[in-house]
From TrEMBL:
It comes from Candidatus Thermokryptus mobilis. It comes from the Bacteria. It is a multi-pass membrane protein. The chain crosses the membrane at residues 32-54, 60-85, 182-202, 214-232, 244-262, 283-307, 327-350, 377-395, 407-426, 438-455, 461-479. GO terms for molecular function: amino acid transmembrane transporter activity. This is Amino acid/polyamine/organocation transporter, APC superfamily. One of its GO terms (cellular component) is membrane. Pfam families: AA_permease_2.
Length: 493
């Protein structure tokens, strides 16, 4: 029964406000909205829009009906966002879904979701860092700067490219009598290292850095929509849904990656000036703004160029290149670099705060919860996350990381939505500064829609997800349950 012992809401709030491990409150509703937009608008809209429209080797495309796919995914995320907003206003704590699950389901489920969130923030950032590197290399090429291929690629792509393989330097291992090629994605490693330094310095400085990038990416997307609208050909929208409902739903599952991030706002709760009011505003406002932009981009993109030509890494830039506006394609490529930088920043901000909350509860070693004496940031976990992301990003393939991120995030959405139902029943007296409307309908719709999207993911993704959870359970039973402060406290009393 220890496994399902819960923390009361008053206990969670008291622990966060008391003691030495307190974070600096510096963020406003505007800062949170900017963080949300910074997290959401990234590689998803700049890359997956084309892939989901055109289809490819492993899935069928939605065609111009990708607009419907964006709306369906936005509804699923919207239901989940309303649930996040209620729980964030009740529990303005940095642990996000981990903390909510501790109050609603108990420690065992809280550990599972805390471990699962690593898939969203850390593993997701590995994929984003690799994507950032690809855009950055293309941008440099536009200025006449070409980096060696072996310094900008992963092992999977390099080993399948005889040209890259031949150009790579070789390392001789005398004791094995072998020579191995060297590959290292330097831009991916470097950007994670840079962002880690920024986040250690301080949340206020990180937020300002993010706000500048958000302003740039919004201008770039508006530029694409306005300029591209003059080159729309309505005949490109026919047939509208070439693969019917199946294509639309497959597209919805793929473009879900483009929406990941609004929940990261809740990880900054303890650094928000007025969390009960500002957190719901930031979560809902960022989702609404990005959804409107996504729909507009999808309409213009599929109108500029036939959907069958969009299965490329840079569909927005490709659309301008096809009509001869190479200068506009360069501007869009710059926007993609800025956008993915902002995503990296917000996700790198989120993961350390999950570790921080778990360590504060004793489920991870106490040094995970150390606060920098000058900057008042969780610097140990920030540096640890930077290492965890930077090293795999220098070598890994983007595909597997992105799939794991999707299923991990959807699982977190399901549990968070369920938490609203549980806490409405177990803690009806707790003040809610924001209430999810139409309970239980909205939470149930969030659970069903997110689980349906999970079922749309490949079987291999489910297998990897289950293996990841089993690893987490092993750590919990070897370390976490023995050092849990909640269990220790209740055993003494």
């Amino acid at each position: 029964m220890h496994l399902f012992r819960k923390k009361s809401i008053s206990q969670i709030l008291a622990e966060a406000e008391g003691g030495e491990n307190r974070l600096k409150r510096a963020l406003s509703a505007f800062d949170l909205t900017a963080l949300g937009i910074g997290a959401i608008i990234g590689a998803g809209i700049f890359a997956l829009t084309g892939t989901a429209s055109a289809g490819g080797a492993h899935h069928i495309g939605a065609g111009p009906a990708i607009v419907i796919s964006f709306i369906i995914t936005a509804l699923a995320c919207g239901f989940a966002a309303l649930c996040y907003a209620e729980l964030a206003s009740m529990l303005p704590i940095s642990g996000s879904a981990y903390t909510y699950s501790y109050a609603a389901f108990g420690e065992f489920i809280a550990w599972i979701i805390g471990w699962d969130l690593i898939l969203e923030y850390a593993v997701g950032n590995i994929a984003v860092a690799i994507s950032w590197s690809a855009y950055f290399v293309e941008l440099l090429r536009g200025f006449g700067i070409t980096l060696p291929a072996w310094l900008t690629t992963d092992y999977v792509r390099a080993l399948n490219s005889p040209e890259i393989l031949a150009s790579a330097p070789k390392l001789t291992l005398p004791f094995l009598n072998k020579t191995i090629p060297i590959f290292f994605n330097l831009p991916a490693f470097g950007i994670v290292a840079l962002i880690t330094v920024v986040l250690v310095i301080g949340i206020r400085e990180s937020s300002t850095f993010n706000a500048v990038m958000v302003a740039i990416k919004l201008v770039i997307l508006l530029f694409f929509i306005i300029v591209g609208a003059f080159y729309v050909k309505p005949e490109n929208w026919h047939p509208f849904a070439p693969n019917g409902w199946k294509g639309i739903m497959t597209g919805a599952a793929l473009v879900f990656f483009a929406y990941i991030g609004f929940d990261a706002i809740s990880t900054a709760a303890e650094e928000t000036k007025n969390p009960q009011k500002d957190l719901p505003i930031g979560i809902i406002a960022s989702l609404i703004i990005t959804t409107i932009l996504y729909i507009a981009v999808a309409i213009v993109l599929t109108g500029m160029i036939h959907y069958s030509e969009l299965n490329v890494p840079e569909p927005l830039a490709k659309a301008f290149s096809v009509i001869g506006l190479n200068w506009a394609a360069g501007i869009v490529s710059f926007g993609a670099v800025v956008s993915t930088t902002a995503v990296l920043l917000v996700f790198q901000l989120g993961q350390p705060r999950i570790f921080f909350s778990m360590a504060r509860d004793g489920l991870l070693p106490q040094w995970f919860a150390k606060i920098h004496p000058k900057f008042k940031t969780p610097y140990v976990t920030t540096i640890l996350t930077g290492v965890f992301v930077a090293i795999p990003a220098a070598f890994a393939d983007i595909g597997e990381a992105a799939e794991l991120t999707n299923i991990g995030t959807l699982f977190a959405f399901v549990l968070t939505s369920g938490g609203v139902l549980i806490l409405r029943y177990t803690s009806p007296e707790t003040k809610r500064h924001f209430k999810t409307p139409l309970v239980p309908i909205v939470p149930i719709l969030a659970i069903l829609s997110c689980f349906y999207l999970m079922l749309s993911l490949p079987l291999i993704t489910w297998i990897r997800f289950l293996i990841w959870l089993l690893i987490g359970l092993a750590i919990y039973f070897v370390y976490g349950i023995k050092h849990s402060k909640l269990i220790e406290r209740e055993s003494k009393s």
